[in-house]
Amino acid sequence: VWDWDIRTGKILYSRRWKEIFGYQEHEFADSFNAWDQHLHPDDRARTLISLREYLDGKVPQHSVEFRLRCKDGSWKWVLGRGMVVKRDAQGNPLRMVGTATDISTIKQAQQDMETSEHKFRALFENSPTGMVAVDPDTGHIVQANLIALAMFGYDEEEMLGKTIDELTHPDDLAESKRRNARLAQGLDDYICFEKRYLRKDDGDFWAEVCVSTLKNPEGAV
After folding, report:
1. Which of 22, 88, 126, 163 pairs with 181 at a CA distance of 20 to 30 A?
2. Predicted structure pTM score
3. What is the pLDDT of residues 197-210, one digit of tens each?
């Protein structure tokens, strides 16, 4: 928790506030300038603008994510929140109190997810194997790499929105549906089998099909 006297620039930081960043109580000055000087250079302008807009009444609440330098020189992500609790007769802010929440773990998880997504996208797009991604709720193809487009003879606009059933040879449709149903029901984690697909030019081709589900962090497929 912190308590800021806006007129004097003095901020009282709780013991826990300082502990988050590795400081003893006497090692971090109780002032706005001390906080300002510890802001990450890439976050400083954005953070101060957010604070200024709140104090000027342009936004209804103050909530901003930023990095603050720790005692050991590392940077820690923080969710800062605050509210004005005292104003003068003209409505100018005099006192503001708020909290700092350590969100470093959340930020790291987000970064790891983004890195994994970039790696997956690169693998998907550059794979020498035809790959498609299907929305499990609608059954529609939502992504197809260049190899897959060439195999089916469609351009991307034509391919997206089609279903796997539409592209499956009628003689192999029942077996394809059975296997995909087992996957959707969680009875199989991964399936691999041979089937025929239909091309845009009315031809068909045999393919070895391997399918698995991907889940997002909330557990949805």
Report:
1. 126
2. 0.57
3. 999 999 999 998 88
